[in-house]
TrEMBL record:
<feature type="transmembrane region" description="Helical">
    <location>
        <begin position="123"/>
        <end position="146"/>
    </location>
</feature>
<feature type="transmembrane region" description="Helical">
    <location>
        <begin position="96"/>
        <end position="117"/>
    </location>
</feature>
<protein>
    <submittedName>
        <fullName>Putative MFS family arabinose efflux permease</fullName>
    </submittedName>
</protein>
<feature type="transmembrane region" description="Helical">
    <location>
        <begin position="317"/>
        <end position="341"/>
    </location>
</feature>
<feature type="transmembrane region" description="Helical">
    <location>
        <begin position="264"/>
        <end position="284"/>
    </location>
</feature>
<feature type="transmembrane region" description="Helical">
    <location>
        <begin position="66"/>
        <end position="89"/>
    </location>
</feature>
<feature type="transmembrane region" description="Helical">
    <location>
        <begin position="380"/>
        <end position="399"/>
    </location>
</feature>
<keyword id="KW-1133">Transmembrane helix</keyword>
<dbReference type="InterPro" id="IPR036259">
    <property type="entry name" value="MFS_trans_sf"/>
</dbReference>
<feature type="transmembrane region" description="Helical">
    <location>
        <begin position="231"/>
        <end position="252"/>
    </location>
</feature>
<feature type="transmembrane region" description="Helical">
    <location>
        <begin position="293"/>
        <end position="311"/>
    </location>
</feature>
<keyword id="KW-0812">Transmembrane</keyword>
<keyword id="KW-0472">Membrane</keyword>
<feature type="transmembrane region" description="Helical">
    <location>
        <begin position="158"/>
        <end position="175"/>
    </location>
</feature>
<feature type="transmembrane region" description="Helical">
    <location>
        <begin position="353"/>
        <end position="374"/>
    </location>
</feature>
<feature type="transmembrane region" description="Helical">
    <location>
        <begin position="181"/>
        <end position="198"/>
    </location>
</feature>
<dbReference type="GO" id="GO:0022857">
    <property type="term" value="F:transmembrane transporter activity"/>
</dbReference>
Length: 405
């Protein structure tokens, strides 16, 4: 990526505060702006988060069939992530970001049809939109924020989005009980606001300084040929797997164990409310070292999730343990992406960013596919057992990170 396109902040001096408009933090490239974009995007996705598995369960009838649908959705997300580099090279990042926002709004409108075909199509479009939005936001962050500031920028982004993910499930499940279409309407409206906001910013990230055609297969081969990037992908895949398990199977687990639907929204909101202390976790990670911090957070997640398995017949205790486990998961959200941002080379950042972003869609594809098989023979708590075991493996892998990350 050409270095002469990097954003340069205003020169420091006694007059700069006078000429810097009050709205600069949310209209000019920087940590606050990118955190704001991520927050509005998160609101559109969080509102329907607790509704998706319950609506899928209503339409399909079993947790196993829901797993199969989630697997199909994951495939759509992976495909979107693979073709995005080529779209970015042709359309530039700004237009591609606007396209992703539009898909997010269309997805919500399709899912509110209350028909299996419309719901399934909408869920796939939502996965494709999320892949685009998250991948492109990483490109903007990498282009406008220096590597030394990343450890501070990421916790800020997580902290800003806490409102969306703490309040979204809580509100969404209650809207769903009033009218099943309401959360999707709110989600679509939020996507429209995000579209208008980003269009108004006229913010363009640098385009790759390469002439060759983007090849997804070559990008994947290049990415996983680098050990540090491979390790970053596995660790972020591991922490995303926990969230996918929580958002997909925890609501089904509670409803199947006799808990009201609002309990599902309350649980998801309680877990994501931990995002409010993301800045503290980010500071703690820098204080003790990201290598040890990430390993310890995975170990915490593993221990608490094993507890969910032990108390699987007590949904009240299991819910409390999921909230405890969320402390470790949010700790990982605060800093884990830094493992990638500090390892990627600037000249191949767009291509490697798209491959890295696949971890989210892979987490929505691979675990549910495995769970679909397991749930054919074993009870629902098996998904938490597998998740706890994988978190333990990730704790060991995290010790292979560079000591001075």
């Amino acid at each position: 990526m050409p270095t002469d396109t990097t954003f340069v902040p205003p020169l420091a001096g006694p007059r700069s505060p006078v000429h810097r408009p009050w709205h600069a933090p949310v209209t000019q490239p920087g940590p606050v702006l990118f955190a704001t974009l991520f927050t509005v995007d998160s609101i559109a996705r969080a509102i329907v988060a607790p509704v998706l598995p319950l609506e899928a369960l209503r339409l399909l009838g079993s947790a196993r069939d829901v797993s199969i649908m989630v697997t199909i959705v994951g495939i759509a997300g992976v495909v979107a992530a693979l073709i995005l580099p080529g779209i970015i090279l042709r359309w530039r990042p700004r237009a591609t970001y606007l396209l992703s926002i539009a898909l997010l709004g269309i997805a919500s409108l399709a899912m509110m049809t209350a028909h299996i075909a419309g719901f399934g199509l909408g869920w796939m479009l939502r996965a494709m939109a999320a892949a685009g939005l998250l991948g492109l936001l990483n490109i903007y962050i990498a282009a406008f924020i220096g590597k030394k500031a990343l450890a501070k920028s990421e916790p800020l982004r997580t902290f800003f989005s806490a409102t969306a993910w703490a309040g979204g499930p809580f509100l969404g499940i209650r809207l769903y009980e009033i009218d099943p279409a309401l959360p999707f309407v709110v989600s679509a409206g939020t996507a429209l606001l995000l579209f208008l906001y980003f269009r108004r910013l006229r913010l363009q990230a640098p385009v790759p300084g390469i002439a060759q055609r983007s090849n997804p297969v070559a990008n994947i081969r290049r990415y996983f040929g680098q050990k540090r990037l491979t390790l970053a992908w596995i660790l972020n895949f591991g922490r995303e797997t926990w969230w996918v398990t929580l958002f997909t199977y925890a609501p089904i687990y509670l409803v199947q164990n006799g808990m009201p639907q609002v309990a599902a929204g309350n649980l998801l909101s309680a877990c994501t409310a931990m995002l409010f202390v993301a800045l503290v976790f980010g500071w703690l990670g820098r204080r003790i070292g990201l290598r040890r911090f990430i390993a310890g957070a995975f170990l915490w997640v593993s221990a608490a999730t094993f507890g969910v398995v032990w108390f699987h017949d007590r949904p009240d205790i299991a819910s409390a343990l999921l909230i405890v486990s969320a402390v470790g998961a949010v700790s990982l959200d605060s800093v884990a992406v830094v493992t990638f941002l500090r390892a990627v080379r600037s000249f191949e950042r767009p291509q490697m960013t798209m491959v890295f972003s696949i971890f989210r869609d892979a987490a929505a594809l691979i675990p549910p596919a495995i769970f679909a098989v397991l749930l054919t023979f074993f009870p629902l708590w098996t998904v938490f057992l597998v998740n706890a075991g994988f978190a333990l493996i990730c704790a060991g892998l995290a010790l292979k990170l560079p000591r001075r990350l």
